[in-house]
Design goal:
Blueprint (H helix, E strand, L loop, with lengths): L8 H12 L2 H8 L3 H15 L4 E4 L2 E4 L1 H22 L12 E5 L2 H18 L4 E5 L3 H8 L5 E4 L9 E7 L1 E6 L11 H6 L1 E5 L9 H8 L5 E6 L4 H6 L5 E5 H8 L4 E4 L8 E7 L7 H18 L4 H6 L11
Parallel strand pairs: 3-4, 3-5, 8-9, 8-10
Antiparallel strand pairs: 1-2, 5-12, 6-12, 7-10, 7-11
Helix pairs in contact: 1-2, 1-3, 1-4, 2-3, 5-11
C-alpha cells in the first residue's frame, strides 16, 4: 500500500469504528457527525479495498481483514500516544501522571496500601484508579485502557509479565477456638466449618478448592465471602476456620485474636504476576512504577514475623499460577 497522501487521522477513526462496530457510536467517540464518520469509513474502504464493516441483520460485523487490523492498529496508536505524550525523562516529583491498576482486594491489602503510602511522598501529584480484576480488566489492558494488571492468571498472553511475589497458604482460626490447638489434622480440617473466598466470574473455583477436589476431599462450607479481607474477620468469635494467603493472615493477626496453623494438605504457593501492555514497556513512567512495586514487595516481605512464616509454611513448594 502507498501511504503517500493518506490522512493518518483516518487511523484514529478506523480504531473507533473497529472498537464500536457502529458508525453513530464511533462518530460520538470522535466528536464527529454520523455523516462525517460515514465519509471516513468510505475513504477507509477505498484505501483498504475492503468493506471493513458489513451489516448482518441488525448489527455491523468486522470483515476478516478488519479483525486482523484490530490489535496491530491499537498497538500502533498506543505507541504513538506514548511517544508523543511522554517526555523522554520522567520526574515523579512534578509528574501529574494517572495510573490505572486492576488488583484483587488481597493484593490491595498486602501490597498496594504500602505502595500508595510511599508514592504519595515521592510523587504527590500522581493519581491512581484502582479497579477489580476479572475478564473486563484483561480486555481493558488489551486495548490500552488499563496500565497494570496484578493477578495469578491472564487472558492477554501477548503482553509482558513478571512475577511480583509469591505467597504460601495457612489455616486461620480464632485464638479461642475450642476444637483445635496449635495444629490441625486433616479430619479436623474437613469437619470444621469453613469460611471460603470466591472471587472472579460466577462459578469460578479458587485453587485451594481445586486441590481439595483433586484429592477427593470435601470440606464443610458454612460461609462464602467475595473478598479476602472479610475471611479473617468472619472466623473471630466462631469455631470456623479459613484457608487464606499467609501475608494476609499475618496482617490481620496483628490486631485480631487469631492463630495461624499449617495446612494439613499441600497447597502450592500463590504466584502474583504483574502485566502491562507491550506498548508501555519502555515508558519511563511505567518503568518507575514497576520499580516502586518491586520496592513495596521488598518492604512488606520483610515485615512478616519469622515465627509465623515458619508455622504457615506448607510441606510442598510447588508453584501454582492459576
Amino acid at each position: 500500500m502507498n501511504l503517500q497522501g493518506f490522512d493518518l487521522n483516518l487511523l484514529v477513526a478506523l480504531d473507533a469504528l473497529l472498537t464500536e462496530r457502529n458508525v453513530t457510536r464511533a462518530g460520538r467517540r470522535m466528536n464527529l457527525s454520523q455523516s462525517a464518520m460515514s465519509g471516513a469509513l468510505g475513504r477507509l474502504r477505498g484505501f483498504f479495498q475492503d468493506e471493513l464493516l458489513v451489516v448482518v441483520g441488525r448489527h455491523m460485523v468486522l470483515t476478516p481483514l478488519a479483525q486482523d487490523l484490530v490489535q496491530p492498529l491499537r498497538d500502533v496508536l498506543l505507541q504513538v500516544h506514548s511517544t508523543v505524550a511522554n517526555k523522554p525523562r520522567f520526574d515523579p516529583g512534578s509528574s501529574e501522571r494517572h495510573f490505572s491498576i486492576a488488583v484483587s482486594d488481597y493484593v490491595m491489602s498486602v501490597l498496594i496500601v504500602d505502595l500508595l503510602r510511599h508514592v504519595e511522598v515521592e510523587a504527590p501529584k500522581i493519581t491512581f484508579d484502582l479497579r477489580p480484576v476479572g475478564r473486563r480488566a484483561s480486555e481493558d489492558l488489551d486495548v490500552g485502557e488499563l496500565d497494570f494488571l496484578i493477578a495469578p492468571e491472564y487472558l492477554a498472553t501477548i503482553h509482558p509479565t513478571e512475577i511480583l511475589f509469591e505467597d504460601t497458604h495457612c489455616c486461620l482460626a480464632w485464638n479461642r477456638n475450642r476444637h483445635i490447638g496449635s495444629s490441625i489434622s486433616l479430619d479436623e480440617y474437613l469437619q470444621l466449618g469453613h469460611v471460603i473466598v470466591r472471587v472472579g466470574e460466577p462459578g469460578s473455583v479458587n485453587h485451594d478448592e481445586r486441590v481439595l477436589r483433586r484429592l477427593h476431599h470435601k470440606r464443610t462450607i458454612e460461609v462464602v465471602t467475595p473478598t479476602f479481607d472479610l475471611a479473617p474477620q468472619l472466623v473471630v468469635g466462631t469455631n470456623r476456620i479459613a484457608t487464606v494467603p499467609t501475608r494476609l493472615a499475618c496482617k490481620y493477626a496483628k490486631f485480631l485474636p487469631l492463630k495461624l496453623l499449617p495446612l494439613p494438605i499441600d497447597v502450592a504457593p500463590l504466584v502474583e504476576k504483574l502485566q502491562w501492555h507491550r506498548a508501555h514497556t519502555q515508558d519511563p513512567a511505567h518503568l518507575w512504577l514497576r520499580r516502586q512495586l518491586r520496592d513495596a514487595v521488598a518492604r512488606v516481605s520483610g515485615h512478616q514475623p519469622a515465627s509465623i512464616r515458619q508455622a504457615a509454611r506448607p510441606r510442598s513448594r510447588r508453584r501454582m499460577t492459576a
